Each structure stands twice: as structure tokens, then as C-alpha cells.
Amino acid sequence: MAKNEKANAECQLNKADNNITKVCHESGLLYFRPETEEIIVVPPQDAGDFESHCLDMLGRVDEFHQANHAYSAALEKYGQQRQQPGTNIDSPAAEVVAAENTLEKKREALLEKLKDGETGNMGYQDVVELLPLLDTRRRGAGNQRLGRRYAYASQRYYSERSGGRSQAGARKKWRTVSLSNRETSTGKESIYSVDSHGRRKIDTQKLKEQLTKDLLPTIKVELKDYVNLDDYNLDKTLFDWAESWNESLNGSHTFDNGVEVSGAAQFMRYISNVGAEAEFNPNEGSAKIKGEAKASVSVASGIGRAVFYIPDRLGWDLSYLPGDASTSLVQAGFNMGVIRIYIENQLIGFVGASAQIEAQLQIMVKDDEQQIVAGQPRGRLPRFQERQEGSSGQFYLQMKKEDEGASVSAEVFAGARVEYSLKGAIQWLKPTQPPATGSVVVPKTVGEFTDFATIGASIAGLAGIGAGAKFLCTFINGKFCFKVAASLCCGAGAKGAFICEVGVKSLLEFGSWLAYQLFALDYRFFDLVMKAAFETFTRLCVMQLSDLAKDIYEKYSKLKSDFLTVAIDFRQFIVNIIDESQKNIEASQKRNQLAKSIITNPERLLIYTPEAKGILLYLLTRHGKWDHVDLDNRGSMGLDIYSERKEAIIQVLNSIQTRREWLKVMCHRSKDGSNLAQGGSEQQVVVEQERQLREFLQEGFNRDRDMNRKAAELLVAQIYRRLKTEQELSWGYALAMNNTAWYNLNRAPNPHFPQRGEFGPREATMTQLV
User: Contact 458/368 with Cβ under 8 angstroms?
Assistant: First the structure.
């Protein structure tokens, strides 16, 4: 044996084990590359180094997922303990911070591995996906193959060994055998076919024919020095993986594109931790993704679905500084409550993979018609401790031009489909309603996250709203639409803005959110909602009460109406309900119907604007000769008059929350909600409007038969006196009629809100794909 040669065997003497000869025999690896339909033979001299590289690739992505899982668990522990009054949360908070720091380190380690090169313009290095078919070092009935695990190598590493030169300059070309290249002597047509449903599948019969008849002899020659393939069950070793991929499509209706082997899909599988996930089984069709994002990926399709909460499930206290900050209440900004973004996002290719691994999300737009969510490379969410301290960006600040977002290139978007793009909602922590109308018991949970505007992929006609705005509500195409800067929830520097709309089913929740913000601002000007949109909402509220059986918002949504259409309809509505020139009692009957709707649904008034309440008071007090003829305006004995209208007026007054709202309601007691003060004395206007109300309440019998002629005056004064002042704003409690015990009890901010808000476990929204 030459000095520079290694020994082929080593002889040892051992009495216990008898004489044993250990043969050091190098071996190779056999892989299939799904993207190019090639059999890859890794020679013995490269096997160890190649396996170390793949293990490092898988190890980094797995450590990131494990750290993400630990952070989510720590966050859940903190959220649950925070709901318990009197519990010290310093320790669980410290655990969250520690888990967050660990997660960031693991994220950086993974991104460091992927930082070179460009993958789909997302700034990640390409990866090569390989499916292990055979490892000749693992012998025995149970170890004839590596199994259904994936191996991943960086594109640079793979290229140097399969087609380029090594660092030492020596030619290192791994043997590849193509199954699809028509120009070679062995290659046939692609093994991928499309079934009757349009889904791509693997033609396992064609695969077997090409391998056994044409390619197997070539492969045997390549492996003859270190393995005898005749010793293996080739059906299990070479073909079982393909059958498992096809089987994973059966019964799955979530995605219909079948097997996907593009570079984008393989990168998606790598980032989803398919190769390192211990619980992965292709026959089940999907693999769970650990972490705060509840997600799973359909392995064969390379497409997943995930639920994200931005910035996390706890949400974020956001502040707002109005344009007119002259009072002490709003000089430093007022708390708008806890808001979070809920996103159910289809994880597709490079875009979906980036959404998993990046801390910060960005909104990207395709053709001004479709918005998707992608990770922002090297982005940074505000740290947990920062969010607890409420150091959020304020709403009034404008977006920078460079933060308005980016367009999506065709390469990034390749393979994504419209119906797979994005859906979600803006959620606010809505104070929990009291158990009953007269209850004074504080519920165990004092807040619940509720949608008030939905996010969808289609934004055709909406992409240009609020250019430069950080948070804005307007009215477009028959719906209230929002623009919410990603930086508000994803942190400073996040690109783009969520464009969303208030659906037909969400109008009441939108009204609840708006009414609560007005209350928190003590009914000062709320410039986050455009003036025209605010007026439109007021008009819709009033018109809806004329016929609760119809949904007028749905009508305008279907017609894609604008501000002007609603304004014209509202003017005609007012004419019909107050026009005394009609030669019948139709106007009187419409006013009576308005009163009946209010009496039937008084709590609905809690989501109305002061302007809407002012309009209602104006309409209910209109009366003339036809009203006297209308028998519906008489009491049960025919002696009193307007009893239902008087009751409706009292309900409107009972819905007023603060003394400042009372002033606004009285000043807007007009047919269109316009301000009667017009720059003059608001107090003089209020005095006059209260006088007119008392006169109407004194029509016929007094409102209270047991009182003298001053009954109406005393009643109005009594309602006003029980209203909350600016110092008694009960932030954190649900709005209630001012004649209830709940309203009277809650005259200060709720110290347990939002600490005892709804939180929920991670598994509550886990999406199973198959």
C-alpha cells in the first residue's frame, strides 16, 4: 500500500467478540430533483460534506421554527395570566422578552444562510430541493432509503458540485440522469401529467417505465462500485415517494393545482420546515407550521394557508391626535383602544415563504387590482416591551411617500391565484356588553376582538384612496372603505397599506367602533373619517330606521353608489317624511313608523352619530293638520296625542352619552343634520331646541300624568343631569342607555381593560388542509 493511500481494512483481536475485520467502505447518495426531473448521484467523496451542508440548512430553519413556537407559547402564557386580576405578570413578561430575543437570533441565523443571491426578487438565495431515494450506508430491512424527507442545498453549493468548480479548482461534476430531456438517449417526455380536474400529478407508470427500462442500467453503472441495486426493493426505494405525493391530493379541496415543483414551491417547502419537521408524513398531505402564525402547508402543492395576527394576538394600543387639540383631553392624544390586523393568507411561493420568516410584513400590489402580503426583508416589528408601553405611531401622522408600498413583479407573483391571495380584517377590542340590561356585574371578560372592516385581495377601484394617509375611512362603490398603513401595526418602516372595506354584515360593527371612538373623544371632530363619509353614515342610519326589514346599505353596495347618490336619496326621503302639502296622511304614517322602529330597537341608537340623533328629533317633532287626522297618533282612549313619538324622543335622549354629545345633538336638530349654531352661540341654540322639545312633549297630555305642566321640562332636565361629564368618560366599558344601572355605575375608566380582553389559544384557529 502506498503511503498516500488509506487502508481498506483493519484487523483487530478481541477475545470477547472473536476476530473481527472492519471494512471502511465509502458510499454514495441517490436523489431525485423534482424541479428538473433528474436523478442525482452524489459520489462517495462528496457524501459526507454534502450531508453536513444539508443538515445545516435544515437545522437553521428548524431552530427558527422551534424558537417561534417557544415565543408563541410564552406569549400565550402571558396573555392568559394577564386576564387574572391581581396576578403579577412580571415573570411571564420576562419570559416573552427572552423568547423574543432567542427568536430574533435564530431568524438572523436563517437569513444569514439565505442572504446571498436573489430568489424571485425577494432577496433570498435560491435553494435546491432533493428527495433522498437511497443511502447505501443504511442497510437492513428498515433502512433501505432515507424515507420521505427532503434535503435542501443552497444554489451556490449545488452549482459548484454539480456543474462548476470546487474551491480547490478541481472539476467536480456530479452525475445527473434526466427523465424528461427528449434530446438524450434515455430521456422521455415529462413524468408530470394533468388529470381530468386540471391538477398536475405524477405519472407513476411512466416513471417506472423510464427508470426500469431505460435509466436503471445507467444508474446501476454509476453505483456499481458501492451498491448493488438488485438487493433493494426498487418499488419502495425509487417510486414510493411519487405515489405518496399523488395520494396527498386525494380528498383535498382546499387547493386544486396539484403537484407543484417550481423553484418558488420548493423554497416554500423549505421555509415551511418540511424537511426537518419530525411529525411530517406525506401520506397525510400536510405539515403543521409551528409558531404564532397558525399555519400548515400542503406538501405536494407547495401552497399553505396561515392565520397571522399583527403585531400579535395581544394587539396594540394605538393613539390618535386630532387636528384640533386645544383641550386637555386630546392634547397628548387619546387612546383609540386595542387594534390588531387579522390575516388569513395563502402562502404561495417566495411571497408566502417570506411572510413566514420575516418579522415584518409589507403589502404589495399587482396591477392596482390585487393586494398580497409578503415579508419585508430585514424588517423589524416593535418589540414586545415597546408595545406594552404604548409607544405606537400616532394616527394623524402622514405616510412617507416611499412607504406607500411596492408593485409586485410577475416573477414574485408567479403561480399565485386570485382566490388564494389574501383575506382578513381590522379588529378592535370591543368592550363586552353587560349580561343583562339592568345588570351591574362586570363580566369576566371585558373585551372581545371583533371585525369592523374586512381585507380582501381585490382592490380594483380602491388602490388610490387616501394617498399619503396613514389611517383613513371614506365611502367608495357603495361601501365604507379603509386605508390602514402597515406601519401602524407592523412597525415603523413597514411598506404599503391595507385596503379594506366594511361589508354588509359588518356595518353595525363599524357603527359600534365609530360611536365608541366619538365617545372616547367626547364627540369632538374625528378627522380619521372623511367628512363626506361621516355624513353618508349619518344619512344611512336615519333612512334605515324607516324600514328595518330592508338593508339599504346592501342596496347601495350592490349599486356601487357614491356620496352624491346617497345624498340625493336622503333629500327625497326627508321630503317624503315631512311634506305636509301631500293630500293624505302618508307623511304622518312614515313618522309614526320611524317612532315604532326606535321604540322596538332603542339600543340601535347607541351606534348613531350625534347628527343622526339630531335629525331624528327633528323628524319626530314635525306635526300638522294631517297628523291630527291620523288616528294612529291617538292614545288607547283617543285623548292623548303622539304618545309613540314622545316615547321615541325619550329613547333618543336616553341614548345620549355625555353632556357634550347633548350639546351636539341639539345643535344638529335639523332636517339634514347641519349645525344650527353656524359659528354663533351653541348654548343659545341648545336652550331654544330644548324649549321646542318640551313644547312637543306637552302636546295633549303631559309626558307624565302624575306631574304638573312642568313634567316635560323636569324630564328633559333630569336626563341631562345624569349625563357624564368630560371627567367621567368610562373608557373600557360598553356604551349603554343613560337610564340604566350599567351606565350609572361606570363613570370612570375600566382599570381591567384591555388586560382582561379575549386572547385565545394558538390552536383555536389552526387550519387543517387535508
Answer: no
DSSP SS3 for 385: helix
- Phi then psi for residue 489, to 5 deg, are -110, -25
Residue with the three cell numbers 396561515: 306
Report how many domains make up the chain: 3
* Range 555-566 average pLDDT: 95
Rounded CA separation 210/203 (Å): 11
Q: Which of 523, 538, 424 is nearest to 480 (CA)?
A: 538
Angle formed by the axes of helices 349-357 and 263-271, nearest 10°: 20
Q: Is 631 helix (H, G, I), strand (E, B) or coil?
A: helix
108 and 226 assigned to the same domain = yes
Which sign, positive or negative, has the C-alpha torsion 707, 711, 714, 715? positive
Average pLDDT (530-553) is 94
Q: Which residues have C-beta within 8 Å of that of residue 414, sequence separation ≥ 6?
A: 120, 262, 264, 349
Please report, for residues 194, 258, 298, the alpha-carbon distance to residue 253 in angstroms, rounded to integers and kept in the order given: 16, 10, 11
Quick one: which of 166, 139, 148 has its CA closest to 50? Answer: 166
Q: Which range marks the domain in which residue 636 is found?
A: 572-748
In a domain, 566, yes or no: no
164 and 69 in one domain?
yes
Query: Are residues 333 and 207 located together in one domain of the fold?
Result: no
3-state SS string for 24-79: CCCCCEEEEECCCCEEEEECHHHHHHHHHHHHHHHHHHHHHHHHHHHHHHHHHHHH
The pLDDT assigned to 665 comes to 98
**pTM, rounded to two decimals:** 0.83
Domain for residue 18, yes or no? no
Is 504 in the same domain as 389? yes
Domain end: 478, 513, 529, which one?
529
459, 483 Cβ separation under 8 angstroms: no
User: Do residue 205 and residue 322 come from a single domain?
Assistant: no
Do the beta carbons of residue 161 and residue 46 sit within 8 Å?
Answer: yes
For residue 628, give Cα distances in angstroms to 243, 314, 408, 503, 698: 83, 58, 67, 42, 15
C-alpha cell at 447: 373585551
- Residue 375 pairs with which residues in a beta bridge? 361
What is the C-alpha to C-alpha distance for residues 11 and 33, in angstroms, rounded to an integer? 40
**Across residues 639-668, what is the average pLDDT?**
92
**Mean per-residue pLDDT for 645-661?**
95
620 is a domain residue: yes
Q: In the structure, what pLDDT confidence band is assigned to residue 323 with cuts at 50, 70 and 90?
A: low
Pairing of strands 334-348, 316-320: antiparallel
Question: Across 224-228, 444-448, 462-466, 679-683, which has the greatest mean pLDDT?
Answer: 679-683
**Using CA atoms, how far apart are residues 22 and 11, in angstroms rounded to an integer?**
7
70-83 exposure pattern, b = at least 16 Cβ within 10 A, e = fewer: bbbbbbbbbbeebb
> What span, in angstroms and rounded, lies between the C-alpha atoms of 479 and 495?
25
**Is residue 287 in some structural domain?**
no
Same domain, 507 and 589: no
Our separate counts of H helices and E strands in the chain read 24, 22
Task: Please check whether residues 581 and 495 belong to one and the same domain.
Answer: no
Give the count of beta carbons closer than 10 Å to the beta carbon of residue 84. 11
Query: Above 80 in pLDDT, residue 504?
Result: yes
Count of positions (residues) in the chain:
770
**Is the bond into 217 cis (omega within 30 degrees of 0)?**
no
Residues 245 and 318 in one domain: no
Q: How far apart are CA 551 and CA 540, in angstroms?
A: 10
Reported in sequence order, the residue ranges of 155-219 that DSSP labels E, i.e. its strands, are: 175-178, 192-194, 200-202
Q: Over the chain, what is the mean pLDDT? A: 79
Residue 633 corresponds to which amino acid?
A: N
CB 317 within 8 A of CB 392: yes
Pairing between β-strand 29-33 and β-strand 20-23 as defined by DSSP bridges: unpaired
